[in-house]
């Protein structure tokens, strides 16, 4: 990635919204944070919300105060979109405000070269944006049929942990976000970086 080659950190924005799934968010986030600890200056990680108001996670177990709102966020090189409970995702697909603010922000950046990395049902959130059109994509196994129905221009990949389409990375359910984040660190910085993070995590990769 040019961001690592020119010495500037890659801006990695993690989208947060009401009822976001915690591990979808924190798994990949911690991978990039650890990579930046081990290789300082590689990644600038931050959260982005529709506003700076606290965002409640799934089941209202905690609240997250975003680092930036969508108006003040630095230009992201990558946007990570965690998923939510399927019922919540379906709600957002019919929420005009969410579509016209949060997902418009994502689409505008995608159209200008930002890499989009969805975790779990995060890919389903993009079904009305056109971002998924003509790509191979995946999601949590429980929503694969729904993803296919809602994205007739895309090719659904089943029984995979993640799908890399260069400008679009999608993953299977929840913990697959960790695997895809590790894969991306390896892609950008090499296997030694991955091995060090896996050792820190004491993570048993599949």
Automatic annotation (TrEMBL):
Coiled coil: none annotated. CDD domains: GATase1_PfpI_2. It comes from the Bacteria. Pfam families: DJ-1_PfpI (PF01965). Residues 11-184 form the DJ-1/PfpI domain. GO terms for biological process: regulation of DNA-templated transcription. This is DJ-1/PfpI family protein. It comes from Chryseobacterium phosphatilyticum.
